Amino acid sequence: MEKTVQMYEGKAKKVYATNDENYCIVSYKDDATAFNGLKKGTILGKGAINNRVTNHLMKLLEKSGIPTHFVEELSDRETVVKKVTIVPLEVIVRNIAAGSLAKRLGLAEGTKMKSTVLEYCYKDDELGDPMINEYHILAMEFATKEEIDLIAKYSFKINDVLSHYLKDANIELIDFKLEFGKTADGQIVLADEISPDTCRFWDTVTGEKLDKDRFRRDLGHVEDAYQEVLKRLMGE
Amino acid sequence: MEKTVQMYEGKAKKVYATNDENYCIVSYKDDATAFNGLKKGTILGKGAINNRVTNHLMKLLEKSGIPTHFVEELSDRETVVKKVTIVPLEVIVRNIAAGSLAKRLGLAEGTKMKSTVLEYCYKDDELGDPMINEYHILAMEFATKEEIDLIAKYSFKINDVLSHYLKDANIELIDFKLEFGKTADGQIVLADEISPDTCRFWDTVTGEKLDKDRFRRDLGHVEDAYQEVLKRLMGE
Ligand SMILES: Nc1ncnc2c1ncn2[C@@H]1O[C@H](COP(=O)(O)OP(=O)(O)O)[C@@H](O)[C@H]1O
Ligand SMILES: Nc1ncnc2c1ncn2[C@@H]1O[C@H](COP(=O)(O)OP(=O)(O)O)[C@@H](O)[C@H]1O
Ligand SMILES: [Mg+2]
Ligand SMILES: [Mg+2]
Question: Per UniProt, which keywords does this protein have (chains A, B) (predicted)?
Answer without folding.
Answer: ATP-binding, Ligase, Nucleotide-binding, Purine biosynthesis
